[in-house]
Amino acid sequence: MRVTFSSPQAEFALIRDEWLREVEEIAARGVFVGGVPVTRFEEAFASYSGAQYGIGVANGTDAIYLTLKALHIGPGDEVITAANTFIATVEAIHHTGALPVLADCDPDTYLIDLEQVKRLVTPRTKAIIPVHLYGQMVDLTTLIPWAEERGIAVVEDSAQAAGASLLGRKAGSMGTAGCFSFYPDKNLGALGDGGAVITSDPQLATGLRKWRNHGGEVRYQHEFPGVNSRLDPIQAAALQLKLAYLDEWSGKRREVAGMYESYLGNCSGVKLPGSRGDESHVYHLYVIRIEADRRDTLRKQLQKHGVLTAIQYPEPIHRMKAFSHLGYQAGDFPASEEIAGEILSLPMNIALTEEDIAGISAVVRDVLGKVQI
Ligand SMILES: Cc1ncc(COP(=O)(O)O)c(C=O)c1O
Fold first, then answer.
1. pLDDT tens, position by position, 119-156
2. Which UniProt key words apply to this protein (predicted)?
3. CB–CB of 237/70 below 8 Å?
4. Which of 135, 163, 263, 279 is deepest in the core (most CB within 10 A)?
5. Domain ranges of the chain
6. What's the CA gap between 22 and 24, in Å, rounded?
7. Interval 58-94: pLDDT, tens
8. Distance 91 CA to ligand 1 centre (A)
9. Does 3.40.640.10 match the CATH number of domain 8-243?
């Protein structure tokens, strides 16, 4: 067996010829920063997502950071997010000077616990960043009006959830803004780094366009010190072509998740991820739970059989050296701490076949059947 974890090459094969033609056109025009491919993709992605504006940026971390800056969040403010997220979410808060405040997750869906989020709100809370982790949307239907009443922004970290939709609303379009990463492994991945923010707030969109471009929309008219964080046109051209496939690919990922459910559903020792069974999950990752003392053995055996797996993420934020200064203690986020020792991401991508899933599942069953506890 030889099963890759993600499938950027399979995706690239589908857009290769058209993308190369686009690159030739960009080269012929000589406009290597900004230009038509970027604005065209920004409009297409916003329209696909049901938002008014799309603002391309250099990566998903900047998408969050610049959104917080454009919302005037900084020192003295607090921003609440998940303890079990990729470090980028919390780095973005940190670099504004605001204090990151962490909340635990539901150990079944791995999604941020919104009741806990509400309890963490103080007069200093300026934003909440729910993370649509592993491709599954946090149900924001009641949080958004609750936050609006209190003047708190909801910034959706949609880095892993491009294409997901809950009750007809696309990830990123429900809150004040939605932030996306187009890192190559993502559900909508570029051929390098890339990111975007979507919003229907015209003032926020204008602020973001200035922030990403040295504090001004017009060349040499700098209204404040901004940064250089732009989406590259060569990447935008690839993203435009991939966007046409996104719904089909989300369907394929859900199909693969369904196969894992049928092959591993009754496998003792394996806990499958909780989901609503609808389009609110696009399975960026397929993350199961295995008892902590069996996980490494299983990983090694899968690797021996040619199956690559990952652990996303081995440590919750509060246990990382980078955020030890926040002063949290072991035991502060019991669910995030427990799952960190048990989660295992199985291969999830558009190139997987039923034969692959059957093969992977056979190894899992075999190994868990043999391991002594
Ligand atoms: C949940 C989450 N937030 C933010 C990011 C940051 O995106 P990028 O790597 O494009 O900066 C990522 C991607 O790695 C992510 O998974």
1. 999 999 999 999 999 999 999 999 999 999 999 999 99
2. Aminotransferase, Transferase
3. no
4. 135
5. 8-243, 246-370
6. 5
7. 999 999 999 999 999 999 999 999 999 999 999 999 9
8. 10
9. yes
